[in-house]
From TrEMBL:
InterPro entries: ChlB/BchB/BchZ, LI-POR_suB-like_C, Nase/OxRdtase_comp1, P-CP_red_C, Protochl_reductB, Protochlorophyllide_Rdtase
Swiss-Prot/TrEMBL catalytic activity: chlorophyllide a + oxidized 2[4Fe-4S]-[ferredoxin] + 2 ADP + 2 phosphate = protochlorophyllide a + reduced 2[4Fe-4S]-[ferredoxin] + 2 ATP + 2 H2O
EC numbers for this chain: 1.3.7.7
Organism annotation: Sphingomonas qomolangmaensis
Positions annotated to bind [4Fe-4S] cluster: D36
SUPFAM superfamilies, per database record: Helical backbone' metal receptor
A single MF term (Gene Ontology): oxidoreductase activity
Full protein name: Light-independent protochlorophyllide reductase subunit B
Pathway connected to this protein: Porphyrin-containing compound metabolism; bacteriochlorophyll biosynthesis (light-independent)
Domain of life the protein comes from: Bacteria
Stated role: Component of the dark-operative protochlorophyllide reductase (DPOR) that uses Mg-ATP and reduced ferredoxin to reduce ring D of protochlorophyllide (Pchlide) to form chlorophyllide a (Chlide). This reaction is light-independent. The NB-protein (BchN-BchB) is the catalytic component of the complex.
Family, as annotated: Belongs to the ChlB/BchB/BchZ family.
Binding site for substrate: G414, L415
Length: 518
């Protein structure tokens, strides 16, 4: 563990919270001190849930360490059972409580409660949140699934599938489930159980009744899906339907597992038509940097290259459990894989590569904002604004439409670029003029002629390059459109440094432009 301002993943007990909070009839008793009790903030504030997460803390304090903290845990667990009457309970310790070694699972077994109790061994100092969610879901499935349940005969019924992986705090999981359920319905397939999101212990007990399993989010579902495959002989669909091409492959794999005709699935995405249109040409070879959880990052790289014509210049993920998959994808795109949970390392990579678009988490959004690069969020961890009230899936054909809209909107479009260049000397289009419909940057009673010199002076002071530029070079630099001006300045300064030029004049600026245009 390390002290940091930002983090991509919390400790593994946060992953357990995500699973417990997603389910119905499950309660999580967490042995934790004051300070580790932040589940309410995570789920009610960020995800905007209408109810509190089903988590009870022991909330021991420093003075309790000299007493019997084990008794304190049992008291909290007993009160939680009597108050909430859950169908099952999971128990574990936070990273701090792990150090005092009270053995919550053993304490709960000694209480002999009349419901299933699932102990969690989540090593906080060697594992993280995604692994914690996967291990928690696996233990729940392994404990609660009835091993005698098998699918009913297929005569007279539609095929049934389990959808595994969606959790609380998941990036667009709610909408993805709706979209994939609709897609399966068009193919004549019923969803038997969605888990953990919305599932109860009684639902988990019947997982064996499905004909096959779909692993929507491997970070959470893969271990449990493998167990179901081994225990019940259920085929597992592992293609993640993010993007138009992946959705078509997903349909083919589902159809093979269910024994149905894939032609029934309707293709409703506008993305392929747009990618073939003349309007898409301004996206061709746009340089994009991608970082997030492995599933979304790998899928985004494929969509960016194959369906939007971007050039992937950077690809990485923060969950090391999927490092092998990420490395394989990076090799396919011809880039160096970046597998790290250090946001400063990610920021350095973005600054060095100078992409024209960043696709990432909320951390990359902040990084891109500081660097002046357009950004779209594609993966957790996310901000409250990434839990929209509107329907906004990432998966399926409608998800492909959402990806297209979300990724293209931050970019300056071809016509905009042409107009900004055409009117770059007009006072109304100066960088500091602000939004014209709000009247920003205008002084009452002044004519355009009076405003322009002031605007020019502000622009010079705000954006004057580093010492060493001549006034003529500074003025020429400001003629470059704002969305590539930073890149032009960095390239010119790098060119001057490489050639030992102490002063950057017009000739240096033009020479650098010619050098990097080769």
């Amino acid at each position: 563990m390390q002290l940091t301002v930002w983090t991509y993943e919390g400790p593994p007990h946060v992953g357990a919270m995500r699973v417990a909070t997603a389910m119905e009839g499950v309660h999580y008793v967490l042995h934790a001190p004051q300070g580790d009790t932040y589940a309410d903030l995570l789920f009610t504030m960020i995800e905007r849930r209408a109810k509190r997460p089903p988590v009870t803390y022991t909330t021991f304090q420093a003075r309790d360490l000299g007493k019997d903290t084990a008794e304190l845990f049992q008291t909290a667990a007993r009160e939680a059972f009597e108050r909430y009457r859950p169908q099952a309970m999971i128990v574990g310790a936070s990273c701090t409580a792990e150090l005092i070694q009270d053995d919550p699972s053993g304490l709960m077994q000694a209480m002999q409660l009349p419901i299933p109790v699932i102990p969690l061994e989540l090593p906080s100092y060697s594992r993280k949140e995604s692994w914690g969610a996967s291990e928690t879901f696996y233990q729940i499935v392994r404990t609660l699934a009835d091993r005698d349940v098998r699918p009913a005969p297929r005569e007279g019924r539609r095929p049934r599938a389990n959808l595994l992986g969606p959790t609380a705090l998941g990036f667009r999981h709610r909408d993805d489930v709706i979209e994939i359920t609709r897609l399966l319905d068009t193919m004549g397939i019923d969803v038997h159980c969605v888990a953990p999101l919305g599932a109860s212990p009684a639902d988990i007990a019947t997982l064996g009744a499905a004909d096959f399993t779909i692993s929507l989010y491997p970070e959470t579902a893969d271990t449990a899906a493998r167990w179901l495959e081994k225990t019940f002989g259920q085929p597992v669909v592992r293609t993640v339907p993010i993007g138009h091409g992946a959705t078509r492959e997903f349909i083919a794999e589902v159809a093979a597992a269910a024994g149905v005709d894939p032609a029934a699935a309707l293709d409703t995405s506008h993305l392929p038509w747009w990618s073939r249109s003349v309007d898409s040409t301004y996206l061709t070879a746009k340089r994009v940097f991608i970082f997030g959880d492995a599933t979304h990052a790998i899928a985004a790289a494929r969509v960016a290259r194959d369906e939007l014509g971007f050039a992937v210049v950077g690809l990485g993920c923060y969950n090391r459990e999927f490092a092998r998959d990420l490395r394989a994808a990076a090799a396919e795109h011809g880039v160096e894989p970046l597998i790290t949970d250090d946001y400063l390392e990610v920021e350095s990579a973005i600054a060095e590569l100078q992409p024209e678009l960043v696709l990432g988490t909320q951390m990359e959004r902040h990084i891109a904002k500081r660097l002046g690069i357009p950004c779209a969020v594609i993966s957790s961890p996310v901000h409250v604004q990434d839990f929209p009230a509107r329907y906004s899936p990432q998966m399926g054909f409608e998800g492909a439409n959402v990806l297209f809209d979300t990724w293209v909107h931050p970019l300056v479009m071809g016509l905009e670029e042409h107009l900004l260049t055409m009117f770059r000397d007009d006072f109304e289009f100066a960088d500091n003029a602000g939004a014209s419909h709000l009247g920003h940057g205008k002084v009452a009673g002044q004519t355009p002629a009076a405003v322009e010199p002031a605007a020019e002076q502000i622009l010079v002071e705000a954006e004057a390059p580093a010492t060493g530029w001549t006034p003529e070079a500074e003025r020429e630099l400001r003629k470059i459109p704002f969305f590539v001006r930073g890149k032009a300045r960095r390239n010119t300064e790098a060119y001057a440094a490489d050639h030992g030029l102490p002063t950057i004049g017009l000739d240096t600026l033009y020479d650098a432009k010619a050098h990097y245009a080769r």
